[in-house]
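Dear colleagues,

For the upcoming journal club I promised to circulate an example of a predicted protein-ligand complex. I picked one with tryptophanyl-5'AMP because it came up in last month's discussion. The inputs are reproduced below in full, followed by the predicted structure.
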Amino acid sequence: MQTILTGIRSNSVLTLGNYLGALLPMVRLANKNSSTSNINIFVPDLHSIISEIDGNLKENSVRTIKYYLAAGLELNENIHIYRQSYVPAHSELCWILDCVATMGETSRMIQYKEKSKGQEACNVGIFNYPILMAADILLYDAKFIPLGEDQFQHIELTRDIATRFNNKYGDIFTIPAKTSDQVKFMGQQDGIRIRDLVNPEKKMSKSTAAENSKIMLSDDPKKAAKKIMSATTDSVGKISFDMFNQPGISNLLQIEALINNRSFQDVIGEWSGETHYGDLKKKVANSVECLLSDFQAKLANISDEEVIKLLERGEKYANEVANNKLREVQKAFNLR
Ligand code: TYM
């Protein structure tokens, strides 16, 4: 059975960018494929500790899993939910892959450059981050990894490391699909990058200080709608999907399409050529408000106990699968 896998760090409450870029696509793919595929949803809590944690990490991890349920994840025996730190094989494979990956390729990672910029004492975890991510993926032979566009470089690195490993030690790892095929599998034409509402040149990020630039999943729905109404647009005066010249308007169009599970083409076709930016903003503000109201109502009804039970079952499964794969790798290195 093929495996579809994804993870979202639990440093804080998530943004609409996390939700539309990774969480919702995973839930939709899981609901469509879980009768024939393994669906692995995990919290990379070891990845979380590369930076500050807002709140309590253990509680945040449970809340992140609740988000998937509130977003409509339909559970069955092929859905596996776990925390990375409860499956020690991730860390051990990471070390082994450290000895396969090169400093050169890891240093080229954009996220490493961005996260380490200006830091006098950047921790080694920030550098090693994509190698642990490769271990997360390769332990489970995952082929498809629903992610936002900012993570594609890490998938390409995972493919390079796995290919180099297999060439030397035999076909131990499944090579994840290349990013263009990942995008197709998600039913998209391009990777998803939700933009900052104030400065749409940048991606929406939880670490941006300005409150109006981001929508958090915990935002009051009416306040979130106001943020959309005050989003930066442009002076072109005509709606079209053009991320280069009209990133603010294009961002609103993509948010509208993703929330309502409509194709970009469809939404662009509906709005293209219109001149009243306010009408588009009102429509998107309403979509965001309805999304958050519904999501938050569902979230309030999910108990910690329910999630802990899922995690315990998932962690038993994950340890079995990951230990089997790790053993194959250890044998290849004559460690066993
Ligand atoms: P994290 O927590 O930084 O991001 C979680 C997911 O949210 C997506 N994302 C966005 N998508 C669209 N627009 C945005 N503005 C936006 N902001 C964030 C990210 O692309 C990501 O998909 N490294 C992973 C966590 C991880 C992982 C893995 C994922 C660790 N190991 C193995 C998959 C498989 C990450 O970026 O987390």
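Two points we might discuss: Residues 141 and 174 are 5 Å apart (CA to CA). Residues 211-299 form a domain with the Tyrosyl-Transfer RNA Synthetase fold (CATH 1.10.240.10).

See you all on Thursday,
B. R.
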